[in-house]
Amino acid sequence: MKRITYISNFSRPLSLDDLDAISEVSIRNNKRDGLTGALFCFRNIFYQILEGEEEAVDRCFARIEKDDRHSRVFILEIEEDIERRKYGEWEMRTVMLDESTDPLMRPIRHLLSTLANTHRTLERYTPQRVLREIQMGGSPDQIQARYEERTVMFVDLFRSTSIFESWPVDVATMVLHRFYDTALNAIQREQGIVSKLTGDGIMAYWPANNAGGAVQAAIAMLQEFDELRKRSAEKDNPLRLLHAGVGLATGRVLEGNIGSSVHMDYTVLGDTVNTAARLEGATRKAGWSLVFDESTKNRLQGMEASSQASASAPIRLIGRFRAKGKEDAVKLYTVDQATLRNAIDHEALRQEIRTLGQVLYGKTK
Ligand SMILES: Cc1cc2nc3c(=O)[nH]c(=O)nc-3n(C[C@H](O)[C@H](O)[C@H](O)COP(=O)(O)O)c2cc1C
Description:
It is a single chain. This protein has ten helices and 13 strands. It is of the alpha+beta class. The radius of gyration is 25 Å and the shape is elongated. Bound molecules: flavin mononucleotide.
């Protein structure tokens, strides 16, 4: 037999009638399927234990997971091959903790809200691939390292050092948040996996057969930065100086856990990752905010050829780049689209950031 324990959040305010409806269907179905357990509701949190024959538990949980009355289902534990039920007497007991006046329920309410808060915090700080493993009840340290074909993205906020040096902390963090918010949302919309935040940048990756997703995410975030700068054109608005570059490279990476028992990181490594980082660096001189390598270009053209999609903006060769210690120069490509052009003079940007810093601190020269 199998037992699954999870927590989730209401996806919208649910009335007592809504909760009764869930309870009713659970009691009916679970009796039919030989499932037992308990469902606790508290504020906007569900906590459920579901146990029974493996196949029945899996079938029921698959329905529950898809239910749009709740979201952010986070599995706390999956117990396989259990011999005895814990909740033999009930079909499915539903406990509305908000309603209960039993003083014994107070610590349970406290426990549940602490548990939910801890998991929401964990969600924000944990690499996505590791989180997925935890949410599915697995052990992230057991994920085997392997070689994979990936499109790797590096995004960098231009002149971040000058920003941090010159601007008041609240302004610098506000700009940093806008940068991360825009870029991370664009990556998430295209199903990219965020590997790490580097302080003033992001490393993310996609399966190489979705290189198009990586390019779309890059174009979307760069367009949004462009619009944000245009909307923030007043002289003392720091957002008008928010510029970023994106580098993409496609190829084989080693994906998996690295580190030790003291500190673990789940990430991708290898030449493709180094190339993506260098191409991001190349955006400073290339005159384009998006630069990618030839294998990314080939993947994109392969995808276009196999889909019926109308031709998107043309891909353009913009130069060559010889990396240190490499025989062959890497060809640099971009998407020929006006918003991706950047003619930033980095020295002038640095000066502007400093001058604005003086204004923001109320100093005048
Ligand atoms: C928090 C939560 C817990 C649920 N628990 C159960 C359950 O234990 N058993 C069950 O059959 N359905 C449960 N449901 C409802 C299922 O998601 C789904 O609506 C239902 O199983 C569909 O049953 P039907 O096909 O008989 O209409 C739960 C839903 C929510 C939101």
